[in-house]
Amino acid sequence: MAMTQLDPRQARTRYLILLALRWMPSGLLLPVLTLLPLDRGLTLSELGLAAAVQGLVVFVLELPTGGISDALGRRPVLVASGVISLVGIGLIFVADSFALFAVAFAVQGLYKALDSGPLEAWYVDTVQAHDPDADIAAGLSRGGTVAGIAIGGSALLAGGLVALDPLPSVDALAVPVLLAAVLRAVSVLATMSLLVEARQRSGWQATVTAVREVPGVIAGSLRLVRGSRILQCLILVELCWGFGATAYESLTPVRLAEVVEDAERAGAIMGPAAAAAWFVSAGGAALAPRLAERVGITLTAAATRLAQGLFVAAMGLSLGAAGVVMAFLACYVVQGASSPMHMTLVHREVTEAHRATVVSLSSMVFQPAAAVGLVALTAVGESASLAAAMLVGGLIVAAATPLYVPAYRAERRREPAGDPEGPPAGSIA
């Protein structure tokens, strides 16, 4: 079956199924990925070093793997990433030393680098092959909803499995890892069955040819970004977001412990709050298209990004434990709404030939920004206060709002022509 034989509805259904299967193993790992290594003898500093290996691998390989996806095709890259993830999860299940956990995190880093972009790129390619003017924002928003529900639900399931300890021969903390491996295998099989594309490259020679094309694809993608002020600004948004995301992703438990003056009580609150965050993120993604219908995609992306910055800053105010948790959840609501709108703007500016590479570039800049943000904001927290760190993080996120101006101007120029979705992806406004 060729890619163009899938209509937008069929493509969206398959995209959502594959997206749910992709995120469920991640949700299962989320509550235990820190606890399991510590339970098996790693120190906190060793865990930090092992986890840093994953981030380094993702940063180094993000762009090349995006180029491979654009040159070779989405399906083989996604299948390979799933198999690699299965190996990584298996290593996590058996690891009992710093070295093994470091290798496991490195393998998971390779998986994340390969997995970043191809599924979303396939969905957009497929829809636009059928109708270049098709609305992709609604599908991406539904994807955000499905991902949030899959992660939140799986995280809750993982907590239940640890509490019930249903397999006496397996450590309770390892049971969710085992189920994650099973679901990853299902995800690989589903990808092989459901994801079809027009570009059929098979055999060793075709693979070698595609790999040789990767440097050219990457160079072409960088030229595309260099020639588009819109893409440049959207990537800078990722930089600001990556820096500020540390405030609510990493510092919230510490801030909450400071507010309630009890680390154990803060931990008890953060467990359900973290799961709830993904559910409310799903709700935000579901509401985003309705807001976009009223004010436009660009204004929706900009307004929700500004709101996210304000909510992060609010976590630094003296609002009590309830105020911190409410601001934390609000951050995820607007993140769920903003992300699919932001990615819709990115997809507007690229063609199939460079889509996954540009998406990977956008994701790649997030990694060092988050690392710098973690160092900077923890330094502010220690030298000044956590409240100050939250305020700084929120201001950095909010500072990205004016970067949507070029995309907004381009969207306004399209409106008189009666085409709110703009021209086919690949046009440079």
Major sheet:
none
How would you state the average pLDDT, rounded? 82
- Name of the CATH class of the largest domain: Mainly Alpha
Query: What number of structural domains do the residues give?
Result: 2
Can you count the helices? 17
Following the backbone from N to C, one meets helices and strands in this order, namely HHHHHHHHHHHHHHHHH
- Rounded to an integer in angstroms, the radius of gyration calculated over CA atoms is 21 Å
Distance between the termini: 34 Å
CATH fold call of the largest domain: Growth Hormone, Chain: A
CATH superfamily of the largest domain: MFS general substrate transporter like domains
Alpha-beta content class? mainly alpha
Query: Unreliable runs, pLDDT <50, ≥5 residues?
Result: 417-429
Number of strands: 0
| CATH architectural grouping of the largest domain | Up-down Bundle
Question: How does the overall form come out from the CA principal axes?
Answer: globular
Q: Give the fraction of residues assigned to helices.
A: over 70%
Estimate what percentage of residues fall within beta strands: under 5%
Keywords: Membrane, Transmembrane, Transmembrane helix
Pfam families: MFS_1
Transmembrane segments: 15-35, 77-107, 173-196, 268-288, 309-335, 384-405
InterPro entries: MFS, MFS_DHA3_Transporter, MFS_trans_sf
Describe the structure.
Helix 1 runs antiparallel to helix 6 and helix 13 runs antiparallel to helix 16. This protein starts with 7 loop residues before the first helix and ends in a 15-residue tail after the last helix. The chain is an all-alpha fold. Helices cover 79% and strands 0% of the residues. It has 2 domains: 196 residues, Up-down Bundle (Growth Hormone, Chain: A), CATH 1.20.1250.20; 206 residues, MFS general substrate transporter like domains (Growth Hormone, Chain: A), CATH 1.20.1250.20. The C terminus is likely disordered. It is built from 17 helices and no strands. Keywords: Membrane, Transmembrane, Transmembrane helix. Pfam families: MFS_1. This is MFS transporter.
